[in-house]
Design goal:
This protein is an alpha+beta fold. Helices cover 64% and strands 14% of the residues. The protein contains ten helices and five strands. Strands 1-2-5-3-4 form a five-stranded mixed beta sheet. Strand 1 (68-70) and strand 2 (76-78) form a beta hairpin. Helix 1 (2-59) packs across helix 4 (94-111) and helix 1 (2-59) packs antiparallel against helix 10 (206-215).
């Protein structure tokens, strides 16, 4: 009887040790994942802040003349409706071409620095429109027309920037081919009317994407 009791007691003690080991292993894993998220988040915050500082240092004196802004998320936003395109057209106005020519090579020179270029997952040029369309007969038509227009505008800007005959652009075309994308946004991120028709250059960081993957 005593031997049976000792055997059961030993077995229970063994199981307790197994469960304790599993619990400790799980806690260690959770803590490691938590620290990984923290480390990535810190890296993302610092790189984002450094890029923002670099963008302001390079472009602060040009923003007013270009009718442009730099957001906290490091988007470069061009929102002069009269400068960008003609109404309902995707052909870039000469005035906006002049701005893009002055802007884009300096922009790429910043982003392709060694401390930034490997941290960038995607560089997007986004076309944004209003939520109206003259003579449209339905909401569906308004959406589809604006989606087509915003995509065409984004593509035209990407094509013009990619094709610039500048040394920094030509030497970084392989990088642009890998990361530079055109997105038509229509009115998915609608702002007040005078700022809804705009072009944005947006940076997606690898560290940002890594945090999302871990959280999933």
């Amino acid at each position: 009887m005593n031997r049976e009791w000792i055997s059961i007691s030993d077995m229970m003690s063994g199981l307790m040790l197994v469960f304790l080991f599993i619990a400790i292993s799980f806690m260690v894993k959770v803590e490691a994942e938590k620290q990984e998220v923290i480390d990535i988040a810190i890296e993302y915050r610092d790189t984002k802040a450094n890029i923002n500082e670099a963008l302001y240092e390079e472009f602060e004196n040009d923003l007013e003349n270009w009718n442009a802004t730099i957001t906290q998320d490091n988007s470069m936003v061009f929102s002069s409706e009269q400068v960008l395109f003609e109404v309902s057209e995707s052909k870039i106005n000469p005035a906006f071409k002049a701005i893009l020519k002055e802007f884009f090579s300096r922009y790429i020179k910043i982003l392709t620095q060694e401390k930034y270029k490997d941290e960038i997952l995607e560089l997007r040029v986004e076309g944004h429109t209003s939520d109206t369309w003259e003579n449209a007969t339905s909401k569906e038509e308004i959406y589809l027309k604006n989606m087509q227009l915003s995509q065409e505008r984004a593509y035209e800007v990407l094509s013009y920037c990619y094709s610039l005959d500048e040394d920094v652009i030509k030497s970084n075309r392989p990088w642009l081919e890998k990361y530079f994308r055109a997105n038509g946004m229509a009115f998915s991120k609608l702002k007040e009317l005078e700022k809804s028709r705009r072009v944005e250059f947006t940076i997606v960081m690898k560290s940002e994407d890594s945090v999302y993957k871990i959280l999933k």
